[in-house]
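Task 17 of the worksheet. Students: predict the tertiary structure of the chain below and write it out as structure tokens. Keep your answer in the requested format; marks are given for formatting as well as content.
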Amino acid sequence: MFEYLDSESDPYTLLSVFGGSDLSLTTSILLILALILANGFFAMAEIALVSVRRTRIKQLVEEGNRRAKTVERLLEEPARFLATVQIGVTLVGLFASAAGAITLARPLARMLAESGIPLIAANPTGTAVVLITLIIGYLSLVIGEISPKSLALQHAEKIALWSAGTIMLLSYIAAPFVKMITASSNALVKPFGGRASFSQPVLTEEEIKMLVEAGEEEGVLEEEEKEMIHSIFEFTDTVVRKVMTPRTDMKTVEVNASVDELLDVIIKAGHSRVPVYEETIDNIVGIVHAKDLLRALHENGKKVTIRDLMRPPYIVPENKKVDELLAEFKKSKIQMAIVVDEYGGTAGIVTIEDILEEIVGDIMDEYDVEEPAVTQIVDENTSIVDARTPISEINEQLGLQLPEEEFDTIGGFVFGLFGTQPQEGQKVEYNSLDFVVEKTDGRRIQKVRIIKTHRGEPGAQEEEGQVGHQR
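Model answer:
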């Protein structure tokens, strides 16, 4: 070996020492191209397996497609094929570079030495290695990465089915190497609190939302579909207080009322379930189902009482998560619950329909009368709105930036600005807006007039604070 290093008769002996080859030039080029194509296979298989639709693969498995079954097994253990691909790409890249340097650098260096160009002829070996590295890198990028991945994205299903068997076989062969590399990596990163893994990172909620937004922009998703997906993410964070019907809007009946009074409430409200209270609405003692009433009237006439008809109420706290309540509704086979506040008083009622509307939007039946949030537009700066309208809807329709954290409805927000029971015609200021109590029903605000006064810029709301000024 050292005789080669000391020889001055051949300036290319260093390459010979590290693996001089008797391969012909054509064979060497074909070997390098084969390695680059192998790199392309791994890249194409990875993208195809990651991009293929799982629902389609499941359908093919049910139809008896054996290749689809192999794809399904790989998708169930993504670490297996991802590790195989990474090891394959790394080894193929190393072999391609080594083969180029060993088999092509020597003849290319001789050609460069005879080129007569002084700068190149002075160091033909180094120049040859650089040129071969650039050429192999370019071919690897085009043939081994970009083109295969583009094809895989366009034909994910076909390529996944075609490549799955080979990847599965290689994953078994590479299993010992994967374990060894993973163990070595774990030992290296353990002091830093990490852990080696070939698994793909899990998408975060925000990343999924960004994908949904991109899908809508490209026309893949409709706006309604996008809103539904966003609603599902918000669903688990929503509490009952946000979706319930407040006590001021509850249709109830006193336990000692007559059956005729109960019938009147059911007919006017159009509800199939009515809460029953005793003495005060804070003492809900039962729920009457319209079908129970109809059955009793059919069988016994009006010889029944509300106590005979009512069922026990299902009580939940107002801070309960709606997804938990939905599970309880399904398990208990009930559709209405009484919501109580922290003091045990009645805060409102919540139904299974209220919960589902958080995902799919408002569900209108034949008894519902759809009332617009903005009931009247007086002029470009003045609008009259229903006090029960959610603040988020008011912000969207009128282009406002009212805070949505503390209050749910515009009526509650205005009541909070006054800090006391307002009278019809009273006005309160909030930043560049005036809120006038247009109509009340006892202690409840029914209509609110919103006036844009342009006292300040909308962006100044946070700086000016949350306190209103009465007039």
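Marker's comment: Residues 14 and 83 are 35 Å apart (CA to CA). Residues 78-113 form the longest helix (36 residues).
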